[in-house]
Each structure stands twice: as C-alpha cells, then as structure tokens.
Predict the 3D structure of the following.
Amino acid sequence: MVVEITTTSEEIKRVLDGINLQPPAESEFMGGDFIRSETLERLARVLVERHAELGFIDEHGFTFQVLWKRRGGTKGGRQTLGKCLLQTGLTKFYSGQDWVIWLAADHVRLMGLNAHGMEALVFHELKHCAMNEDPESEEPPTPATIGHDVEMFLSEVENYGIWASDIARAAEVFGKQLGLFGGEAKQQEGPAGQDAPMEDDNDATT
Ligand SMILES: [Zn+2]
C-alpha cells in the first residue's frame, strides 16, 4: 500500500504570507514565561482545516490556544520542544480553552526551524489533541489528549529488530519516507531540526 504523502507548507506560506513564524526574543517575554501567538494559532487553524484527522476539533467546537514559552526545559535529558495540555478544572476556568499548546521559544530559536519544521511541530502538538467518546451514551464527546504512536529506544531496534507492532508501523512509515518498499520519498524543503528530538509530553496522561 502506498500512502500519498503531501506537504502543506506552500499553502501555509500563502496563508501566513510573510508573517514571521520565528520565536520571540528572550527580551520580548518581558520577564514572563508565555506569549500568546496569533501567528502560531493561524498556522494551527490551517492545519486543523487541512488535515481530516484533526477535523473533530472544529466539528465538536473544541477550542485551543497556542503560546510561545520562554524556555522549554528538558525532560529525561532531552529538550522539550512543545506541549499540549488538556485544560481541566481551574486551568479550564481561567484559559477558557480545551487545550493549550506551547512551543519552546529557546529551543526552536536554536534549532532554526524553517516553515516546514514549524508546521511539523505545530502538527505534532495538535496530534496530541483527542476526544473521549462513548458510543453507548448520548453525552457529547469530551476533549482528551493522547500519547505518541510509538515509544522506543533506537538501540532496542538495533539489538532486537522490529519486535513490536508499533515499531513495525514506524518502520513502514520510515520506509515510505526513504522511498523503500515501492513508496515515493517525500521531498523535504530543507533541514527541519533533525538534530533535535521532537520530545514533548502530553500532560494529561501520567
Ligand atoms: Zn509529542
């Protein structure tokens, strides 16, 4: 099966039309930790409209905001590039949102992400948005967050191969990206921060 892989970066560029996607400078935070970014939210809105798998967000009237965070910090020895936080209780009361996404200004600045990389990062965080739905119930679905499709150490694959179904699925996707297995390689626009892992967290799961 060949999955068609498309990039929306050109579309994003047209929509944002010269608007600066670059993270704010440290001084622009004025000593605070967060800056709301209309630009990032516009980018996220385009992605929600563009990708059917994110369509449930608009379909059910769920809401989110996207912020720059001054410093992303590290977890488990790796830089945290962003987070998607489900809003509950007091945080929901004060934010008025179902999710708040933040991107780490310091890490993104150092990585020098281009438009393609920024789009990928925002898409990644949006993919943590999910919903809980009980088909037996007439109650409307509720917003939730989900974890990554695959969690692994590279050395486990080096030592034990493709031993689990999620790793097999990852291998399939990588194979298509690399033009293996009869798929077509995706044309990248340029470096999109390959050196840094896109490690983040989804806070609603512990
Ligand atoms: Zn993530």
Observations:
- DSSP finds eight helices and eight strands in the chain.
- Helices lie at 9-16, 38-50, 56-59, 89-95, 105-111, 115-127, 154-160, 165-177.
- Residues 124, 128, 148, 200 surround zinc ion (CB under 6 Å).
